[in-house]
Design brief:
CATH topology of the largest domain: Methyltransferase, Cobalt-precorrin-4 Transmethylase, Domain 2
Number of domains: 2
Structural class: alpha/beta
Bound molecules: S-adenosyl-L-homocysteine
Distance between the termini: 46 Å
CATH architecture of the largest domain: 2-Layer Sandwich
Shape: globular
Oligomer: single chain
Number of strands: 10
Strand content: 15-25%
Radius of gyration: 21 Å
């Protein structure tokens, strides 16, 4: 018997991995994060399975369901939104499983930051402008480590993808404008890949008002950075003067790294 942590992806069941789809459709016991996992994904679990919504459960109650599955010798699916490794709170569950000598594995999922980038039809990196993507959040009831406060992240001028933060979009964008400039592109994607998805593209100056007008208060990704602009430098990768292992340049006087 084992526990399988499964990434449910951002919402649209077509974005599940083949492995996630397979284990879900054979599952007999499933604990899912009801506040976030899309109902369309939960619907793949057979009707005969025991289904638990972790939104209303304590860690001890989850542990109890793990132990029951162990006693019945039946695999248990622990379904987390997006990819389980990002704000999934799976470490504490794996520690419990270690204590009970229960085996586990993880099936990765498409994270909501990736789904948001797809909805925005954007690339999160841009040559010479942004070669780093930061996945972060603002402090909520979970405080931020001091060295990772928004101000420090913003200094790097990376592309920022902020989870769990849209309710603070006014404060976040005001702070970021100090570092990126108020004309820096900013986007908010609510329910990326869901049927009721909302995409808002603006600048740090005006995005908060647009998010407020759209009444978006949760389950949204904030994406900020100059990489989101359309007028970025052309990459070396496809440049006709740039040679690499798979292609000879027309004029190899231009060399460099991808
Ligand atoms: N493990 C998840 C993140 C869980 S934290 C992942 O990899 O995506 C929950 C936060 O994820 C939400 O507050 C929101 O910021 C973001 N999120 C989850 N699903 C989303 C979606 N479909 N669209 C936009 N943001 C989403």
């Amino acid at each position: 018997m084992k526990v399988i942590f499964v990434g449910a992806g951002p919402g649209n069941p077509d974005l599940l991995t083949v492995q996630a789809q397979r284990v879900l459709s054979h599952c007999q016991i499933c604990i899912y994060a009801g506040s976030l996992v899309s109902p369309e994904v939960v619907a793949i679990v057979p009707e005969t399975a025991d289904l638990y919504d972790s939104a209303g459960m304590t860690l001890e109650e989850i542990e109890e369901v793990f132990k029951q599955a162990q006693q019945r010798d039946i695999d248990l699916i622990r379904l987390h939104t997006g990819d389980p490794s990002i704000y999934g709170a799976i470490r504490e569950q794996m520690n419990i499983l270690d204590r009970h000598d229960i085996d586990y594995e993880i099936v990765p999922g498409i994270s909501s930051f990736q789904a948001a980038a797809a909805s925005l039809k954007t690339e999160l990196t841009a040559p010479e402008i942004a070669q780093t993507i930061i996945l972060s959040r603002t402090s909520g009831r979970t405080p931020m480590p001091a060295a990772q406060e928004l101000e420090h992240l913003a200094r790097t001028q990376s592309t920022l993808c902020l989870f769990l933060s849209v309710h603070k979009v006014v404060d976040v964008t005001a702070e970021l404008a100090n570092w990126y400039g108020s004309d820096c592109p900013a986007a908010v994607v609510f329910h990326a890949s869901w049927p009721d998805e909302v995409v808002i593209s603006a600048t740090l100056a005006d995005i908060a008002a647009k998010v407020d007008a759209a009444q978006i208060k949760k389950t949204a990704m904030i994406v900020v950075g100059p990489a989101l602009a359309r007028d970025i430098p052309v990459s070396k990768l496809y440049h006709r003067h740039f040679s690499h292992g798979y292609r000879q340049a027309e004029d190899s006087s231009v060399a460099g790294q991808k």
